[in-house]
Structure formats: structure tokens, C-alpha cells
């Protein structure tokens, strides 16, 4: 099977949209999906900054959504014609997977970031027969088609705008899940979100949907304006009195804070803004040490990492689409679509902050 995909051949070069070949149909427990749209996540772009860790050449993309074309074996309940949102890969049988925590799968890094399942290595090549890295996050969805494990696909209502749903499998899932799952925020709670990008704004929308008071912190006025539109109070980050301003807006301190920036100064500010026994969750990868200032972790405050919003995608994605139908999670307002051929323009706009969530349309 031949189709177009965006191939990244080196950590420095642009994507090349070219013909690729899938050499076999779906095996047991797999599905072939025709991609309707795939979100561009900063994890895709971070491959360049972690050069040498994720194998190349590869087809990236891990926020895909599409229509099932073919199924393999009897290990799936999905059928051709089903509309699905694709999410991250997991083994399905380790302690975390069996405990409804697939984002903490023992094999998460190997399956999603560093090579995928070994049995897929020879199945996906370029037009000349050169090997491409096995499935990125179980998907490699910057393409017209993707072969994925059926357990990573979530059936959705065919009346939904399928081409826009892919980011519900990762970026929006992470932000909303942090608030709704990790924090279990509700009425009367206060949630501070540091960084009003795709993950942060999804967290803001989820906090508002849950009845919590949301505060967004960012350096970009246009992002803060979006946060206000979604019901948050907005604070400009570049000021030395940020903890005082947060405490002033939250009645003495926030119960929950979510950092999406990885910035050590902002993380310390967030800790200082918490009320006693407040929680700070980190979703951004830290690329340097995190020096904590004196007193930031006293009075029962807690600091912890959150992966994929602590979500079970098969439960969380329908919850988010239900909130969208009710007008309480307007994630579509964060999306700008691009033809797959414009993948490099989408990357440039994403890196420059001109778009919150690019979605590529094959």
C-alpha cells in the first residue's frame, strides 16, 4: 500500500512529504486507519532537540483521528467504517496498565519514543525500500494512513468533526486530564495554569467546566486573552510579585497549580502561590535541574509529575467530546488546519507561537 506521509530524515532538516509503503496489512489486534487529521504536538517537534534518542528517518505524528479501513484478527471490537481517535501506545499487561494507568506503562518510552514494537520495523518503508522507524507513539499519523494497535483507538460519534478530534488523544487529554483526573478539581477549588498553550488552555477549559476558579499565567497577551475567553483570570508572567498576585486572586492561595512550561522560576512561583496542602503538577519535561527555593515545599505542599493527564483514553476522550457537545470544552477554537503538504509551515507557526494547535489534513 502506497500513500503520502511527512518524513523527518534528520534532526536538522525540514519534513519531506513523500510516498511511503506499508508492506503488510493489519495483524491480530491491529487496525488500518485512514487519517482525517493529525494534531502537531510539541513532543513531535522536541525530537529535534533530543537528537539521537528517537530513531530517524521516521514518520512522526501522534494525535491522529480517522476512519477504520481494515481490521486484523479477532482481537478488536472495532469495525471498518468506525470513526476513531488514536492515543498513545502501551503494553496492556504490566502493573500500571492493569491498574488503569496506561500512561505509566513499564514500556512507555520504548513503545512511544524510542523505536516502537520491533515486529513493525520492516513493515513501513520509503518508496525506495529504505526502512522507516517503527510507529511513533503507536501511530506515525503525519500521513494519509496509519497502522495502529486497536487498543489505542477510541471509537467516537460519527457526527463529530473527525478531522479536529486528534488532539484529544494527547495534548488536550493531558491538560484536561490533569485537572479532572490528577487534581479531581471541582466547585470551590482554585486552579492556576502556568503556560497558556494547547495543554494549558485545555486545562483552563476543563477547570471552568468543572466549576473551579481558573487563573492562567503567560507572557503572551493573545494567549491570555484566549484564557479569559474560556473563563480564567489572566496574569502576565514577567513580574516579580507573581505569587502575591495569584494569592490575591485565589483568596490566599491556590489549591492546585499546573505547570506546562518547565521553567524553574515559574515552578518556584507556583509553589509559593499554593495554600497549605496545595498540589503542583508538572507536565513539561525538565531539561535542567530544578533548584527549589527555601520554604517552597513546606506546609504540606506537594510536587509531582503528570503523564498524559493520568487518563485512560477510552474513558477520557468520550468525556471530553461530551463536554464539547455541551459547549463546555470548546477545543476547536484552538485549532488551525493545514494541508499535510504545509507541514513545515505548521511547524514554524507552532514554534513561533502564531498558532495554538496545528492540525494537518492529509
TrEMBL record:
The chain crosses the membrane at residues 160-180, 192-217. This is NAD(P)-dependent alcohol dehydrogenase. Its cofactor is Zn(2+). SMART domains: PKS_ER. CDD domains: benzyl_alcohol_DH. Gene3D superfamilies: Medium-chain alcohol dehydrogenases, catalytic domain (3.90.180.10), NAD(P)-binding Rossmann-like Domain (3.40.50.720). Pfam families: ADH_N, ADH_zinc_N. It comes from Streptomyces durocortorensis. Residues 9-360 form the Enoyl reductase (ER) domain. InterPro entries: ADH-like_C, ADH-like_N, ADH_Zn_CS, ER, GroES-like_sf, NAD(P)-bd_dom_sf. It comes from the Bacteria. Belongs to the zinc-containing alcohol dehydrogenase family. Keywords: Membrane, Metal-binding, Oxidoreductase, Transmembrane, Transmembrane helix, Zinc.
Amino acid at each position: 500500500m502506497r500513500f503520502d506521509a511527512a518524513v523527518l530524515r534528520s534532526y536538522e532538516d525540514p519534513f519531506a512529504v513523500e510516498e511511503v509503503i506499508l508492506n503488510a496489512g493489519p495483524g491480530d489486534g491491529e487496525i488500518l486507519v485512514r487519517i482525517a487529521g493529525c494534531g502537531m504536538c510539541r513532543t513531535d517537534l522536541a525530537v529535534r532537540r533530543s537528537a539521537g534518542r528517537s530513531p530517524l528517518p521516521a514518520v512522526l505524528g501522534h494525535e491522529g483521528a480517522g476512519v477504520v479501513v481494515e481490521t486484523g484478527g479477532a482481537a478488536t471490537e472495532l469495525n471498518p467504517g468506525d470513526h476513531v481517535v488514536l492515543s498513545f501506545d502501551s503494553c496492556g499487561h504490566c502493573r500500571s496498565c492493569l491498574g488503569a494507568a496506561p500512561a505509566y506503562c513499564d514500556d512507555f518510552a520504548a513503545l512511544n519514543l524510542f523505536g516502537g514494537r520491533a515486529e513493525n520495523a520492516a513493515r513501513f518503508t520509503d518508496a525506495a525500500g529504505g526502512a522507516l522507524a517503527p510507529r511513533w507513539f503507536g501511530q506515525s499519523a503525519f500521513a494519509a494512513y496509519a497502522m495502529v494497535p486497536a487498543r489505542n483507538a477510541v471509537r467516537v460519534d460519527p457526527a463529530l468533526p473527525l478531522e479536529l478530534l486528534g488532539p484529544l488523544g494527547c495534548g488536550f487529554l493531558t491538560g484536561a486530564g490533569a485537572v479532572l483526573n490528577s487534581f479531581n478539581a471541582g466547585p470551590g477549588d482554585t486552579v492556576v495554569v502556568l503556560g497558556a498553550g494547547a495543554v494549558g488552555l485545555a486545562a483552563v477549559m476543563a477547570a471552568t467546566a468543572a466549576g473551579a476558579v481558573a487563573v492562567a499565567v503567560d507572557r503572551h497577551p493573545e494567549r491570555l486573552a484566549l484564557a479569559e475567553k474560556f473563563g480564567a483570570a489572566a496574569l502576565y508572567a514577567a513580574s516579580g510579585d507573581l505569587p502575591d498576585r495569584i494569592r490575591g486572586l485565589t483568596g490566599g492561595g491556590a489549591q492546585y497549580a499546573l505547570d506546562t512550561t518547565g521553567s524553574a522560576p515559574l515552578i518556584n512561583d507556583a509553589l509559593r502561590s499554593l495554600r497549605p496542602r496545595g498540589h503542583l503538577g508538572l507536565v513539561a519535561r525538565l531539561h535542567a535541574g530544578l533548584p527549589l527555593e527555601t520554604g517552597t515545599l513546606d506546609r504540606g505542599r506537594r510536587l509531582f509529575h503528570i503523564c498524559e493527564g493520568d487518563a485512560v483514553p477510552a474513558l477520557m476522550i468520550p468525556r471530553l467530546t461530551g463536554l464539547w457537545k455541551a459547549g463546555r470544552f470548546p477545543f476547536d477554537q484552538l485549532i488551525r488546519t493545514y494541508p499535510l503538504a504545509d507541514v513545515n509551515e505548521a511547524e514554524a507557526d507552532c514554534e513561533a507561537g502564531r498558532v495554538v494547535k496545528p492540525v494537518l489534513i492529509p
